[in-house]
């Protein structure tokens, strides 16, 4: 039986060379990256590194797209890793972090631009496209380069969510957990 799960060390030299370029958390290679290592093609080509600091989006907007996409796909693993690693750098309140988990995009804790971004991500995740109103708003708010980044992040983190949700791995010990219903 072929089970999707983390690859164990020792890794072949060509896999080690690629994994050495992946980010680490205090020297620790995320279990998800070890799942990616099951396929050299997937590891090197299918999940582009959109966390390289060269994003045309602000860190806050980039992470909002990632968290909402992971939330829409019920991917606690990746949502929790991003909250833990980037949550403080984005300067979000606890209410905002909780609100990334399926709360109405017009919740009072977001700016108008952030609410629109959440609506865009929700539409992309649900329908794979934007209606005329959201498309006009997207085009008038973000540059073409930023629009492409939003699409790439949504697509990439849907893929990552599918992998994380179906791999037999534990949640990372340092990662945040989805808020409970009472916290929403």
**Beta-strand percentage?**
under 5%
Query: How far do the termini sit from each other?
Result: 39 Å
Poorly predicted runs: none
Helical amount: 40-55%
Could you say which structural class the secondary elements and strand pairing correspond to? mainly alpha
Could you tell me the radius of gyration in angstroms? 17 Å
The total beta strand count reads 0
State the order of secondary-structure elements, H for helix, E for strand: HHHHHHHHH
Return the average pLDDT rounded to an integer. 91
Descriptive tags:
184 residues; 54% helix; single chain; mainly alpha
Explain this structure.
It contains 9 helices and no strands. It is an all-alpha fold and 184 residues long. Helix 4 packs parallel to helix 7.
């Amino acid at each position: 039986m072929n089970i999707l799960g983390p690859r164990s060390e020792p890794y072949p030299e060509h896999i080690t060379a690629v994994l050495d370029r992946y980010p680490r958390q205090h020297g620790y290679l995320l279990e998800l990256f070890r799942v990616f290592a099951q396929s050299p093609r997937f590891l090197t080509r299918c999940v582009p590194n959109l966390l390289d600091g060269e994003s045309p989006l602000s860190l806050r907007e980039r992470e909002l797209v990632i968290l909402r996409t992971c939330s829409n796909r019920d991917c606690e693993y990746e949502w929790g890793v991003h909250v833990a690693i980037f949550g403080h750098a984005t300067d979000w309140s606890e209410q905002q972090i909780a609100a990334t988990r399926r709360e109405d995009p017009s919740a009072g804790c977001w700016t108008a631009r952030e609410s629109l971004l959440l609506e865009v991500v929700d539409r992309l995740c649900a329908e794979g496209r934007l209606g005329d109103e959201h498309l006009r708003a997207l085009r008038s708010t973000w540059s073409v380069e930023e629009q492409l980044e939003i699409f790439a992040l949504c697509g990439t983190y849907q893929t990552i969510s599918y992998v994380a949700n179906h791999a037999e791995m534990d949640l990372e010990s340092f990662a945040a957990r989805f808020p409970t219903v009472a916290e929403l």
